[in-house]
UniProtKB/TrEMBL annotation:
PANTHER family: CONDITIONED MEDIUM FACTOR RECEPTOR 1 (PTHR42685:SF22), GERANYLGERANYL DIPHOSPHATE REDUCTASE (PTHR42685)
Protein name: Geranylgeranyl reductase family protein
Species the sequence originates in: Nitrospira defluvii
Entry-linked InterPro entries: FAD-bd, FAD/NAD-bd_sf, Geranylgeranyl_Rdtase_fam, Geranylgeranyl_reductase
Example of a GO MF term: oxidoreductase activity, acting on the CH-CH group of donors, NAD or NADP as acceptor
Residues annotated as domain FAD-binding: 10-301
Any one Pfam family match given in the protein's UniProt record, by short name: FAD_binding_3
Database matches in SUPFAM superfamilies: FAD/NAD(P)-binding domain
Length: 402
């Protein structure tokens, strides 16, 4: 390993240059801070991911990101184990589909243009911190900074080394990319498919891309076995995949938020900050526990940590405390709501599907959450009022069906 002199101290080092890291780097550099970003891979690089961006991303990014959008989604087709399709549509976009190699590369280029120094293909192997600075060791050398942002994904090295007591819960998922050629999309180029009965405490999905489909299953529970069999059954049940070649799926973890991840528990500080370090995006488990959406929250957490640092440039404690407070104000309340919804739907998937069919207007209301027109915390009370009248009857029916 090279013994490089510690000649330069950066304001911020960012480990991981996916959406969270790239967005944070760009925002910090635009305001004059010196930023060094690391990524073990060279961009653009393929990343296993459904690539679903809720339409509220329009409120966060400049319109230029639309240049890498593969499809715009206006509807969801729900099924239960491949049967009884239910299409619910919106007059406005509810999501955008992207391939992560193109989307992440676009954001990285924005960071470079803003002045960030990037070292891609240079993996970080050790991170230390003391009262004065952070030290980062890679295969190529040693670096230091006043603060470090962990944006290095579900298996975050920053989290493992600087947050030793943090939860390691990650939901298992399998995904494959199906090439379409001249074939039509399934269900359509503007519709995603969600199978609420495809997996135990999870769901199966088919997301349309420009020239193909992202096909996957995920289970939002701590222990899982037989996920490959679940994937194969989902592919077999999906009518639109009949006769298509579905390549062997690739596994990847979904670091979904759980109740143990956030909030200020008595005697314990925020799990998103430690000393001079902050976790963003997947590294912080800032992933919606209902559908596993992570890209939107990666972008937003990157913006929030940058804003907090810029607001307290000479006080790392104050800036990181403000970041934790911003998460508590803006993101975590919605996660607690969607976690409650997920527990019901994934425990009783057939009941959940019957509720979807009976209360399509409630789904339309949830589309407004994805469009950024309301929040999950605002959505839930009204949804509970509409559902309350028949939930007891449906629960009894569901118990007979189990």
């Amino acid at each position: 390993m090279a013994d490089r002199q510690l000649a330069t101290t950066y304001d911020v080092i960012i480990v991981g240059m996916g959406p969270a890291g790239a967005v944070a780097a760009a925002a910090l550099c635009r305001e004059g801070l010196t930023v060094l970003g690391f990524d073990k891979d060279a961009h653009p690089r393929y990343k296993v991911c459904g690539g679903g961006l809720s339409a509220r991303i329009d409120r966060l990014l400049e319109p230029g990101f639309k240049s890498v959008v593969e499809q715009t989604v206006n509807g969801v087709q729900f099924v239960y184990r491949g049967q009884d399709p239910l299409l619910i549509e919106s007059s406005q976009p509810i999501a955008y589909m992207v391939m992560r190699d193109r989307f992440d590369h676009y954001l990285v280029q924005q960071a470079i243009h803003a002045g960030a120094e990037l070292r891609t293909g240079e993996g970080v192997v050790e991170i230390t911190q003391n009262s004065d600075r952070v030290g980062v060791v890679t295969q190529e050398g040693r670096y230091q900074s006043r603060m470090v942002i962990g944006a290095d994904g579900a298996n975050s090295l920053v989290a493992r080394q600087l947050f030793p007591n943090r939860s390691l819960y990650r939901a298992p998922a399998l995904e494959s990319e199906v090439r379409l050629g001249n074939s039509r999309h399934y269900p359509s180029a503007s519709t995603i498919l969600v199978d609420v009965g495809a997996a135990r405490q999870g769901y199966g999905w088919i997301f349309p891309k420009e020239n193909g489909l992202s096909v996957g299953v995920g289970e939002f529970r701590r222990k899982s076995s037989g996920l490959r069999s679940t994937f194969d059954r989902f592919v077999s049940d999906a009518r639109g995949l009949s006769g298509r070649t579905v390549p062997r799926p690739i596994g990847h973890p979904i670091p979904a938020y759980s109740d143990s991840e956030g909030g200020h528990r008595e005697g314990i500080g925020s799990p998103f900050i430690s000393g001079r370090a902050a976790l963003v995006g997947d590294a912080g488990h800032l992933v919606d526990p209902l559908f596993g959406e992570g890209i939107y929250y990666a972008v937003r957490s990157g913006q929030l940590v940058a804003s907090a640092i810029l607001g307290n440039r000479h006080d790392h404690r104050g800036s990181l405390a403000e970041y934790a407070a911003a998460l508590e104000r803006e993101i975590l309340p919605d996660f607690r709501i969607t976690a409650r919804i997920a527990r019901v739907i994934y425990a009783f998937p057939r009941l959940g599907f019957r509720l979807l069919r009976r209360y399509q207007d409630v789904v339309q209301s949830y589309f407004e959450v994805l469009q950024g027109r309301t929040t999950a915390a605002q959505f839930l009370p009204d949804a509970k009022k509409r559902l309350k009248a028949s939930v007891n009857d449906l629960l009894l029916e569901a118990l007979h069906l189990r």
